[in-house]
């Protein structure tokens, strides 16, 4: 075995010894409490039909984009879709990236320069962390949702300051104190960047997201909205000023140096937004969340408080969390364990996603099973 193979082997062995070796699995269980398909769009027959109809109206569309957006891969329809999404979110402009990961990496790494400061909530998504790592800026984190720590970091920050948060945290499901963070950002002339991946479709009128629900759309510097969760599609958009859009077209390497998304992906995104515009699903998804929380009330199951579609059940270690997930899966309930290093050691958990399509009976069955789990 050569040195590189030895290195690979030893890193994998380390993970296996700790019981946290990741592996792909295509097993799905009948009752979905795991996917990010909050509104059921990924499985929606209506979305399939709408997408096909939209595609039918685009003459001679190609299977592949054939190049990057700056070369042969741009299309009027993509630009029209970007503007329509920006309008829905009351932003001046938007630029579509091939994924939320690409959007965050491209945005942060291109914006923050040497001498600037990036201050991030300690629980932000890996894609934002990677974007900050790729920049040459000074990087700080603050304790999750802790305004005092954020202010302390803002006081010593230099250059252009960027504060990175999620409106709904992907692994905890809790919500950022957006109004207060926005206030601090204004006080210290920092630019607030909000990842709305898990707020779209769930918060605000017609699921516009938490930033708009709080009327902060003209306050924040940029928003990232991803299409792979409630929208049931793939890709993401960065929302901000027209100048920011032009800047990203010029400097965001994950936008410039990649083949554009194909038109059928854009048609699906366009059609999914039409569905959000046509129907407000938020009351219905809220009723599912409320039912779950009510059923859980008075049990002493350890959770993180959340009013979003993401709920948690905490364990002390990965083997407990894995055993809990397995015991639910045997009963046909698809719930996954989230282990370190995705979450901190000792904070391993079941991550439960509630969906529009989960029947009340399914939610009751889930909670009954959760009540039988052991937490040592
Ligand atoms: C908060 C957050 N931001 C960004 C992403 C990345 O989005 P995508 O899956 O489209 O790459 C995710 C999804 O994993 C996420 O949870």
From TrEMBL:
Single biological process term from Gene Ontology: biotin biosynthetic process
**PROSITE patterns attached to this UniProt entry:** AA_TRANSFER_CLASS_2 (PS00599)
- Domain (Aminotransferase class I/classII large) ranges: 31-356
Report the domain of life of the source organism. Answer: Bacteria
Q: Which InterPro entries match?
A: Aminotrans_II_pyridoxalP_BS, Aminotransferase_I/II_large, AON_synthase_class-II, PyrdxlP-dep_Trfase, PyrdxlP-dep_Trfase_major, PyrdxlP-dep_Trfase_small
Where does the UniProt annotation place the signal sequence? none
Among the GO molecular function terms of this UniProt record, one is: pyridoxal phosphate binding
Sorted UniProt keywords = Aminotransferase, Pyridoxal phosphate, Transferase
Could you list the residue ranges forming a coiled coil in this record?
A: none
- Cofactor(s) annotated in UniProt: pyridoxal 5'-phosphate
Pathway(s) of this molecule: Lipid metabolism
Q: Which Gene3D superfamilies match?
A: Aspartate Aminotransferase, domain 1, Type I PLP-dependent aspartate aminotransferase-like (Major domain)
Q: Which family does it belong to?
A: Belongs to the class-II pyridoxal-phosphate-dependent aminotransferase family. BioF subfamily.
Name of the protein this chain belongs to: Pyridoxal phosphate-dependent aminotransferase family protein
Q: What is the lineage of its organism?
A: Bacteria, Pseudomonadati, Bacteroidota, Sphingobacteriia, Sphingobacteriales
């Amino acid at each position: 075995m050569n040195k590189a193979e030895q290195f690979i082997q030893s890193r994998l062995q380390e993970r296996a010894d700790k019981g946290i070796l990741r592996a792909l699995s295509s097993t799905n269980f009948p009752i979905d409490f795991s996917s990010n398909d909050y509104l059921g769009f990924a499985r929606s027959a209506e979305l399939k039909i709408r997408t096909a109809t939209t595609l039918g109206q685009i003459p001679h569309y190609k299977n592949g984009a054939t190049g990057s957006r700056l070369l042969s891969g741009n299309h009027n329809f993509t630009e029209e879709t970007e503007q329509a999404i920006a309008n829905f979110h009351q932003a001046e402009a938007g630029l579509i990236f091939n994924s939320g990961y690409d959007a965050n990496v491209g945005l942060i790494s291109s914006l923050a320069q040497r001498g600037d400061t990036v201050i991030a909530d300690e629980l932000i998504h890996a894609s934002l962390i990677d974007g900050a790592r790729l920049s040459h800026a000074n990087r700080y984190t603050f304790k999750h949702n802790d305004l005092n720590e954020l202010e302390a970091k803002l006081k010593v920050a230099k250059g252009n300051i960027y504060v990175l948060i999620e409106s709904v945290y992907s692994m905890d499901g809790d919500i950022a104190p957006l109004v207060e963070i926005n206030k601090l950002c204004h006080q210290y002339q920092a630019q607030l960047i909000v990842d709305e991946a898990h707020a779209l479709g769930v918060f605000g009128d017609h699921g516009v997201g938490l930033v708009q629900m709080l009327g902060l759309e003209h306050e924040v510097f940029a928003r990232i909205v991803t299409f792979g969760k409630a929208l049931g599609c793939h890709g993401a958009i960065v929302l901000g000023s027209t100048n920011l859009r032009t800047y990203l077209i010029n400097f965001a390497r994950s936008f410039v140096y990649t083949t554009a998304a194909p038109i059928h992906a854009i048609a699906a995104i366009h059609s999914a937004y039409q569905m959000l515009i046509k129907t407000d699903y938020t009351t219905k998804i809220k009723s599912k969340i409320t039912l779950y929380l009510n059923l859980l009330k008075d049990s002493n199951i350890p959770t993180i408080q959340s009013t979003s579609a993401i709920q948690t059940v905490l364990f002390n270690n990965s083997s407990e969390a894995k055993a809990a997930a397995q015991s639910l899966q045997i009963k046909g309930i698809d719930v996954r364990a989230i282990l370190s290093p995705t979450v901190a050691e000792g904070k391993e958990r079941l991550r439960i996603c509630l969906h529009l399509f989960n029947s009340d009976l399914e939610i009751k069955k889930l909670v009954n099973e959760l009540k039988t789990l052991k937490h040592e």
